[in-house]
Fold each of these.
Amino acid sequence: MPRSQRRFGSNLSSLFGWRRPVEDVQDELELHAELRAEDLERRGMPRDAARTEVARRRADPAAVARICAADAGAGDRDSHRRQWLGELIFDLKYGFRMLRAQPGFAAVTLITIALGLGANTALFGVVNAIFFRPLPIDPEGRLVRVREYSLSPDGRRRQVDASRRSFDAVLAMTDQFERIVAFSGSSLNIAGPTGVERASVIRVSPGMTSLIGIAPAIGRTFSADEERAGDASGVLIISHRLWSRAFGRSADLAALDVTADGRRFAVVGVMPDGYHFPYNADAWTPATYDPDQRLLAIFARVKPGVDLPALNAKLEATGRRLNELYPQVLAGLGLNAVTAREAVSDNEGPLSVALMSSVGFLLLIGCANVAMLLTTRFAVRQREVVVRAALGCGRARQLRQFVTETVLLFLLGGAAGIVVAVWLKDALVALLPDTMPQQMGVTSVPLDWRVWVFGLTLSCLCGLAAGIVAAARASRSDFSVVMKSGGRSAASTASRRVLGGLVIAEIALALVLLTGASLMIRSVNRLLNRDLGLAASGLLTFQIELSHPKYRAGDARVALMDEAIGRIAALPGVSGVGATTVNPICCGDWGARISIEGQPAAQPSQPLATVHHRLVTPDFFTTMQIPLREGRTFTPADREGSQLALVVDARFARRFWPNESAIGKRVKRGGYDSPQPWLTIVGVVGAVDDSGEYTETWYLPYAQFPLSPSGDGAHVMVRAAVGDPLALVPSIRDAVLAADESLAMFEAATMTELKQRQVATDRVGATVIAALAGAGLLLAVVGVYGLLAFAVAQETRDIGVRVALGASGRAIVAHIATRALRLTAIGLGVGVAISIVAARLLRSLLVDVGTLDSAAIAVAASALALGAAAATVVPIRRALKLDPLMTLKA
């Protein structure tokens, strides 16, 4: 063989990664020996000596085999790397040419991949923002929140804000913390240029800006003298939002002295836009805490190297010591710390897992669809496969080329998916916990390097998986069968099984998605339509704050509440007015630890029973339409100097007196030795579906406990006689100002609106999952259609023979429909089994909906069955229109 031809053969075999056995390619061995001699000459060996050495080594067959193997393998690593890189470039160029040659296939496949990868990447951006991306106030991940907790009867921890005594104990742990700050929430009615503004004001202990690492954007932080002065400092740092809303973004801070609840404050700084930490704050002021102060949010920065489990062990020991020192107020309470991220994430883990699982299922369906498209596409290239094999291209090399084409396709789809993710990221802010946009200024889902790496990795992994599945069958082609077919591709039984398996997987995953979406939608509907135990329709609510110094006396507070409620009740269109310290369906919670007269006292190591604590005015129950079950509700006579009355809900009565009436029983706040007075139960009302974390509720007359810490503010409830309750807001505001011109009315909303806000995140999550389920259903239907259409195209000759032999149209229809029915039935069976397991992941997100919901599964299965049936229509019509004569000639 001429050397040029031998070199061509060597290059061709190198191109396809193929090496023939030594004993079968003597010409190649001779060429190799000559090249070896030339190489020895280049290294300085005389020509005669080089050829003698090669001739000597050629005499030994084993030595020749070793030389050949070394040259073909790792003998020349640089050459091997260049060869591998050249093959990769060749595969990529060839892949681009194949995509250009079939633009329709490329478009459909890229859109499918882009939707799946884009949804995954966008949602991972949400997960990244919640769980991985450094928080603006905690870039090093060393910020923790320290809270007290009690154990419920079922063993669950109920977290509560800490007391001053706990704060002092944490301050003493200097070996664990390098900075500790306590925050407490309050409100001020600020008289600004635009009128009275209610502001959420946070009272802070020294060191706020050094703790969070965020300084005012304008002005300065508090001085050491101001922090030591505490409440007497008279200075404020305000939020950018309040600065814009109440002061018109005035740059002259010296001119921003404001009056708040009768006190003068100097504004010394403005925080950056979007920062409202904690509690969606509008302003911050130095604080002085009383020894009995409760409801402190303690945030601390741990020292480098401090381990959270070890820290919690020390906090538990500190909590036990506090129990012994202050049994009246801290008995049964423990101390523990959680990361700032966990405190801010607001228990978003289950919903994030459900959403990521949903988009993961959608991606799997998309990958199955793409794998099926590629399998059919590679199957029609069988002639190309066998020609390459005949030229010496091994199966591994063919697999590598097909997989490279597939990965290229997924990388292009992933790039398009990034565009989809960028387009979706702002809309997905709705899935963030409210605390992140409200307190951290996170108004979008940032796509940082983690998101890009996730998208790239996911693209490569999906491309490899889909490419291997599709190419594994395509690279196994029988030379004689393909060549006898004259170029017509014929899908093997194994290929049809692979395609059928992909369709089964698609249907099963789509069923899981549809079932999960059905459960989430039903749960949200239950939340929206659940019986609250009160009539929300036609009810308006707003808040007022009584923190002005002139309301420090109890009788002054009661007089103001009586006058304001009386003026509102006299307005046209108002049918009832009442007030409570806590709105039962939103806006925070307040608990009371109690003891029951005549029942065993709790042991020092045991927590007291804790219930919802509410102060209400006499007409509260009638305005809310909470039914009276036994006894009476409060009257205007239930005020200071009269018998201390108490109303409890039905759950309270049932828990402590299951077999007798609760009327006349006595209850007190705190333990048996608490100085709090005994309260006598005068009535039992219906249970309200309270949003707080406790189960039972007690109600106290506002007029008997106006100076209770929970009495600093009130939620006023106004029932409209007819029409939209919001239409009453202007007249109600005038009535409130008539009662006190310094009193600000804020957060006005209907109870129906608040009810919808409560489930807003769940509703968004359910909507997203439903959209993903719809996309999954569409992809599954497309998959069934694609398989049947391919099968009809491959079996054209077979169908023509059947028709020519007398097969009826009904038989042809039965043949195609049976295949679709069999695949659908198997897919539904597998999907039901997976759905039962996957639904358990949604358990924490579901309300009044069982995880094994036969109705949800039946609806999802029916939708898939109908979709699969619809997918068979076009292939059946195509089969019935086949001309037997033309198909046999083909």
Amino acid sequence: MPVSRFPTLILLVLFLVCFSIAQTPAGQSSLTITVKDSNGAVVPGATVSVASNGQLFRQTVTNQNGVAVIEKLPEGSYQVTVKAKSFPIISRDFSLTASSPNMVDIALSPGSVAETVTVTATRGQVTSEDTPVPVSVVNREELDLKGLNTIGDVFRTLPGTSTVNEGAFQTRPRIRGLDSNRVLILVDGERLNNSRTSTEQSGVETGLVEMSQVDSVEVVRGSGSVLYGTDALGGTVNIITHDTPGRRDHGYHFGAIFNTFYSSNENGRRGSVAINGSNKWMAFRLSQSMERFDNYFTGKTDGKVPQGILDINAGGVTPDGEALNSQSHGSDSNATLRFFLNDTNTLKFNYDRRRAGNIGSALLFETFNGFFPFSNRDKVSGRWDSAAITKNLQRLSVSAFYQTQNRNFTNILTVGPVLPFFPGFYQFSETVTDTKTAGLDLQSDWVLGSRNNLTAGFSFFRDTNNDRRIINSSSTASAPIQRSDHSKSVPDASLTNFAGFAQDEFRVNRRLKFIGGLRIDNFKTKAQSTNGFSVPTLRPDQIEALGIGALGSGLNVSNTAVTGDVGAVFKATRNISLSARVGRSFRTPNIFELFFTDQGSVGGFVVGNPSLKPETGTNFDTSVKLRTSKFAGSVTYFNNNYKNLLATQEATTPGPHGQQCPVFIIAGPGTVFDADNCNIVSSNPRFAPVQVFQTVNVAKARIQGVEAELEYPIKIRLGYLTPYGNFSYLRGDNTDRSEPLDFISPFRTNAGVRWNNYGKSYYFDYSARIVATQRRLSTAFLLPANQGGNGGPEEGFVTHNIAGGYYYRREKFNLSINLGVSNLFNRAYSEQFTFPPARGRSFTIGTTWEIK
């Protein structure tokens, strides 16, 4: 779809908004919800939320008689969710018609397993048992209990997931062995990913969302491309932030929340304050937070450095365990305003301003010092929702956002002198990337007959990137600048995506339903002729073979992706559901991979490749899920096959005798390249040739495994004792080379037990994280370190954590205090396939003060 037609889409959206507001639902009723405990006693002060197709429709609180009344509710399908002190979350589906009862009774039991509800897996609110998509949901109470520094830390404890990097800002998720841009990060359903970040060495930071703003985190494992498009190759993470209060049919409501958090290991401090209010016509929420984390400390090595942890004498870790250059600080300002236009239409606006600075890259210190002086995000967004428009059109939603990500990466290279031969070398390099993203999403939900529910819509986003860079070189930091370079490694470029999607749910009977979807994406990537960006000096035949002739003068690249999936859910019994799904996933090459042309961070010279194909995957999942009021468990097997995976390799061109010859940049006189034999026959030591590398589609891979999780509350004399845990086994193979993949953690187990009293006012929690040693690795990876390998297998580890807390809950006031100790025995270890060591022991305390 041409960009010139985009204004037409805006006019269409405005027409739909006016049309929906003008409609009068066929019928309206008042819904009365009575909340009681398992003994039949009423539960006052419970929060009752009514959602329609995944979007909050109304919210209220039960009165002293345990009753909540929702007035003027249109006919349609809804989900009632009840949250109350001392009880797990309970959700119930119901349909409201003129002939159906308008009263719902909900019974709560302190020992019941909480319902798991997701909006990410299907673009609509549904319980995890009703979808074939493997999903984990971490709510705010669990986030507080875990005592997390950053959202990235969540992925240490979920099935099938792990982490990349360390520190309070830069920890990122790895899902089923894939990370960086192969995992899609959403914030309230809108993209956080951008197409400028490197896939092999970087990725979008979840730290761009401040922890106190988060209400829940939903993690979909496996393909999410049909609903969300590119990057959802390994999984999709939806970070759902705090919303405004729901509509109040009578009076005006004000509230406030104050949060604090402290972590002893890195002297981490975070505080936030929020105020909110609502009435019949509007609601608002305003918040401000600040945080500061110093360098963290590793666990005690007792004189022995575990495999994979940098030697403390190498300069990255001090003798007392301080991981140098791992600090960060930041702030967040957020404002949300929602208007209730009438009983079925709402309009929401949000502004989020995230500032982060002095962000270190752990252990990049001394000789090569890399850090981020700032990494900022600004986002404005709007969303319109309409429910019960007609008998068949149950919901229409339109959202739009504009986001800027402005990041500065600075590195300083210092090489000491070797007198009298070498005076020393100092280089200061600063690269500022300014990426702007505009996005639009339209979704409609249809009820077609008694068995069919259809979700359909279209989406659009455009990333526009501009870089600026300066490199100053001299013999020492205090010496006069000898060379100043203002060149660019990436041209000014944009990536535009238009997509249409549809997903249908067909219920064969009350036990069996099928879910299938289709998506078509068109991508246009455009590089402009940019001052300071140029291709290296190579022979014409090499430039032609590498396909980079037009890089310097501007280039347009276009591709189309078609994805689909189909799944089934079968309710074998009231408590057991079986599901299976097979689908396609993809990731389009981004601006960095298509156009980056410069010195590589690990040596050599990298050139862009405009001919790259999208990475694609075929994903299969099958699950067994068991849920009763006293037990919840699931087992999932998955088998994901990928092709055209991108990797940076030595660039070659055909030689005169059919052989492939490496490509070199001849840096100066005295170097002769023997084309017949593909090698350097002489060289001036002052002008060593530089080898050229290029990102290409090379790899096929298969990643398969088993994921399981359980929760089992047991009633004992003093309260409820709940064993819980999850288990993951992953196996990865490079099917091109018939060898193991070198980024797969094998066995990962999280096991724990939690006690809480009958009123859930007090709790104590113990958990252990067990990661097995990974010996199944390629021969090259297992080579000694002085030969470019890892020096052995990736060592496993076990960490222990304890936590406890107190909850004081009343109808108008809540107080919670959460205490914890992570890495209880101060174990020195490193997350597998992560260079920096992990944090040592840390004492944490978090408090939440809420006026409702």
Amino acid sequence: MVFRKRILVQGTVQGVGARPFLYRAARANHLTGFVFNDVAGIIIEAQGEDFHLNSFVRLLHNPSVCPDWPPLMQIEKLQVQDRPPQEGEADFQILSSRADGSPICQVTPDTAVCRQCLAEMTNPTDFRYRYPFIACTHCGPRYTLTKSVPYDRPNTTMDRFLMCDRCHRQYTNPTDRRFHAQPVACPKCGPKIRLLDNRKKILETDSDEVIRQTAKILRGGGIVAIKGLGGFHLAADATQEQAVNLLRRRKRRQAKPFAMMARSLEIIDEIAILDPHSRQLLASPPSPIVLLPKKYPNRAAASVAQGTNTFGLMLPYTPLHHLLFAEPGMDLLVMTSANFSQEPLICDNQEALEQLANIADVFLMHDRDIFRQVDDSVIHSIDRRPAFLRRARGYVPTPIRRGRPVSKEIFAAGADLKNTFCFVKDDQYLLSEHIGDLAEGRTYRHYVWSVQHLRDLFEIRPRIIVCDLHPGYLSTQFAQLQEADQFFQVQHHWSHIASALAEYRAEPQEQVIGLAADGTGYGTDGAIWGCECLIASLLGFERFGHLAYYPLAGGDQAAQEAIRPLIGLLDEQDLSAIESDLVKIEPNRKKIETIRTQIDKTINTVSASSLGRLFDAAAALIGLGNKNTYEAQLAMALEAIADQQEKSAYSVQMEENWQGPVLWDPRSILRQLLDDPDRHTRPQASAARFHNTIAAGLLEFARRAREKTGLKKVALSGGVFCNRFLTNRLIEQLRQEGFEVLFKQQAPVNDGGIALGQAAIAAAKIEKGL
């Protein structure tokens, strides 16, 4: 007996070889019908004998049984409905895509070139031999090329390249790996590379010669701007100190570590400690930058990553990268985003030539346009699991699932630092890629454009707007300009904890103990919060405890100059006792007196519970520096020297406040650090004790909160938890005490996850009618 079913498939299913796979599977099961892409995902109608039809459906539910399952295809949702059989249907077909309705399926992230394409690219008999843009349905650019959905060639930046006969035959052959692979091209019909100098003069257009000349310039210590998947990189030989310092001077990047690209895992293994999971992550389709512990000695230039104990490393992920690293001497390159500090990544050829002319000696570029610039993702390991520091290329715009649909679409504006924004549609949190610091004009304009693009890409018309509580945030001001049925402002640290609740799909009313720790967050009392113990759900929060307030002078300067939190944290007696230390930290005595006056007279001074600034003060006292030339520089230096074997800690002094939250005294921590006899002789031990004390204090918050509430789940979020030493130690201790720990893996723990938390709070409030 013949049956027919209509199947809606949602997930990562467009542009990954799903339709040809389904076509082959349907024919193998002797089914008739059709499959096509639409804005909801993939629609299948399949007809045949009961056994064969059920076998086909079972395959979709259990992909592990199928050896030729497309590697990038991920089914997240299946809807199967019975349909009346149709007469006269002789075959199974792939139909043209349909664009009617509102898009709810995802656009596939950009992925690294696959092994099959690399094998073809290195095969002299293949017609794509040494072609820098080889791709198929298993790999290559997706999101960065996509103008609109459904994901078809006319809706991408490949629309200007007319396929030759050979490419077209593959593109239209359902049994071919390149069937409907939108970036498909070859040397005859596709994009091409060229080499230009910084005066816009074309130096070379022959593809092989461009690669050879680029390698020669890099070996000679030159700086090259290389156009990649999501924008330009600036490249230099990472083994040459002179070349790396030249790049630092030209880019005006004084100390922030550079990422590196290595020819192979073997090269990475020479300079960093590789565990099995990191190996797998580096070689995975997203191909992120992975932070790895340094090996000593190593051949990377010292100035690549000073003041840290890790390297940021990635493998070649485009065909062009692989061709370049196949050249002699190309083992290890600095590969850093081509932009100025806090500005958006440059992706346009003309803009690159104009903006980077004083940095790059030559430009290796191509004529395939990048519609959406996307930075490299950055991942490190927390609790032996991957955790995002920056979520971007390879992962965005993969949605984070809510588990149930929202009744109204939502826009969450995010934070001003490390900005991401988030839309909620159906049951999807659509968290944007890393945008950056909105205080920079170019970044803010990119933010506004990005919001509009993602909104149009998925045809989202949000009626609920949510943003941070801080009135001075540009993201808040942007959100206030949007038309909405309802408008929410959410406290920063509540958003941090809510982002963890969203990832773990907590029910709206479920409460957890939330430990939120960072540098700055606007509090409900107008103070600057930064070390908070919250009793929180997606519907509300109570401030159970916090680091006791201390005065912070100088506004934004307090995040840069360690002397400012240090003076705010110590009284006059303490400051007099360490006058020699103060002068080493800040030689300008007049500045010291000015800061004291500001604090005494409350001039340009705020009350703060910032844990981030406490880290700065401790690092300065240990002698690790006096300024953050980039965010968290001093805290990273403190983490880098901390002795992993040191288990002792200073005492934790907390006091119950019957009228308000439990207060943790930060001054006692610094006083004990000052009294530590190892501070100057063994700073590694003192740094570890400081970390251990912070872990002990946060653990004590959790203990006291459990005593009061009975709660056993603890959610951790905030930029301080990017610190691996602290976070790993705290998670271990929490578990030993019987707590269940929620730590994010799908969104960054820093402010890059704020928008997710804002969106989750708004969704929960709407669901509960609040």
Amino acid sequence: MRKRVYLGGTALCLAVLAGVCGLIAESSDSAALKAHGGARAAQLARELGPGVDVAVHRETGRVRFIGASPARPIARPAGIGQSAPPSAVARVFVDAHGEDLGLSGGSKSLRVSATTSGPRGESTVRFQQEIGGVPVLAGELAVTVDGRGNVLSLLGETEPQSVDTTAQVSAEEARRTAIAVIAKHDPLGAATPRAGQPRLGIYDSRLLGGPGLGLPTLVWQVEVATPGSPLRELVLVDTKVGVVAETIDLTEEVKDRRVCDAANSSSRYPCAAPYDRQEGNGATGNVDIDLAYDFAGDTYDFYSSRFGRDSLDGAGLPLLSTVRLCPAGETCPYANAFWDGSQMAYGQGFAAADDVVGHELSHGFTQYTSNLFYWYQSGAINESMSDVFGELMDLTNGVGTDTPSVRWLIGEDIPTIGAIRDMQDPAAFNDPDRMTSSRYVADIEQDDSGGVHTNSGVNNKAGYLITDGDTFNGKTVTGLGIDKAARIYYEAESSLLTSGSDYADLYEALQQACTNSIGGSEGITASDCVEVTDAVDATEMNQQPLNGPAPEAPVCGTSQTPVGLFFDDLENPASGNWTHGAQSGTDGWYYPQNPNPFSFDATYATSGDMNIWGNDEGSAADYSIAGTVDVAIPAGAVYLRFDHSYAFEDKAKDGTRYDGGQLEYSVDGGKTWLDAGSLFTDNGYNGQITKNTGNPLAGESAFTAESHGYISSRVDLSTLAGKSVRFRFRIGTDASVDDYGWFIDDVRVYKCEEPIDTTPPAAPQITATAPDSPANDNSPEVKGSAESSSTVKLYATANCSG
């Protein structure tokens, strides 16, 4: 699919670092967001009343959480009567704070998606953000109102930028693209993937927390599934460009019970009549069938008896299961279980673990409440919520062994495999127990949908602490017991979290859920909520993980000063600094980024309005854009640093990388070029283009797949001292499937120098002899020279002109 029109409309100016004038630039837009998110958030908290907490989204800068206690709620909005419905109260409250929330149109851009009631008369109103009638993925707000119309909390995130909602790519084109990409990247068995009816949506990777350009984009949402397999993917196809913006796994690895037996085949999936056992039937003697049936009933009873919930959707959803399934393309017996959005599926023996059954069915509960995306941090929370509820069910159903040694193990009853996670000690299975743990994974390769199974350990540890208590990471938590813990997690999931919630949101949600639950039948008190706060603090949910997305590359050491040798912010097309290099196949580099043959507005700059753009071609090609300026490299600490964002063709499920980009340098005026991969000090190549893909760069290391928005990379040039060097950016592609490509801005070469000592010299030392000494002839001897010190020249701290 060829790129067509319009990506972003206006340049997106992102903050990079602060401090050096021409070396590091920050846009006014970014600075405004930071100010808005800091001082304004504190001011808003004061305006709303004593004890109100306000938190801000790290990337959009807009308010994402407002919380108060039931004892001191935020007063009902003026002009709203006590008998007004909760949706009206919530809408007026949102309107009053639309600017802080990032809603330029106030609540007019919000549609009520659900209203649920709590046990103490409170109601939660869920809003879906829409722009031009098109829903924003993860653009949601959950507002909780008490029985008197006072506001208890607001949690969620919204898209603050406007988006053109006119699609240039047809739904049918998007459908074909989605099928082609899944067939190429995720081959499972011989069956052809099938796609549902495309529907429009607005996607911004900042709201979901995964990789991507970090720009709001109108997309076709296409659900693609392969018959007979667990594969179910949400493919987001850019409606302006025709490329796949992202692919998100929808398979989450349910008292109307119906069970089908596949007998170690791919049959009986999906499960349909005639059933091998259904509600009211006696035991069959088939262990897999009977345990799936029994534990599904235990899970139903857990939600029903504690929360009055009728099945996963609250409306009597039948609990369908296929046991002894061997999905197409998988090893048989299948050593896994999954929730596919409609039913459960178990490999042989996996229904024997009651916590696994509770875990998988709880994915259905999540689907019908917060609907957490199975993607990066929201996906890790999704996984952990299933662990928490599955284990609490396991601990209360009176079945199996729940001794202290296995009390918090997940899957200890799975035949031959045994436990797969430990909530008390996540590190026992190499999972993180807090956000700054070295075990927290960034999963840039998306091998696990952004680390959903591993990073679930953070909330798993918190769930254990809240329930049983312990001393951990400098905090001593007194456990609240199963009843209170279950209520708090149920309140957080059903009333507070939204589909794009991350751990920072969960940090607020668990505390607010406890506050909301004070005085209920479980006997939760304010002192219990102190323990919850200690648990989320101990697991550092409000901190950034050490192994998160790539940090900004440093400029110089803390004691050093950068001195510019070359700088191009790419704002002057007449500079002559760049030219098309050698290539084979289609040449996809453009500077300035417009005009180009696709009518594609590739404006995506970290400063000013211009950048270089390299299209990720959908045909086999090798093309570059080369610098024309030779930079003399002096001795010392000399670096090349550039800002860039890339989205090359996605890596396939089997690890194949098809497209990628490289940085090269020349020391002979551009006659020959060398790969600079070994010179990177920060944010270098992230993969290797797979051999035998037809890409001219096959087998070589490169930037591949996607970055998390704009990042900066730094290259050490000290080994090239004494040479004149120029640089070029090169892209290699295979024969099919394109993507957004490579955006580059603010290319600079500079030297890091130690600060010059400007300490005044010591006072001159004068030695005098007796007046009659012929050696001195009455002339003083000067031991220091003030004049010599005054000739030292101080160098500028930065070369702002480049």
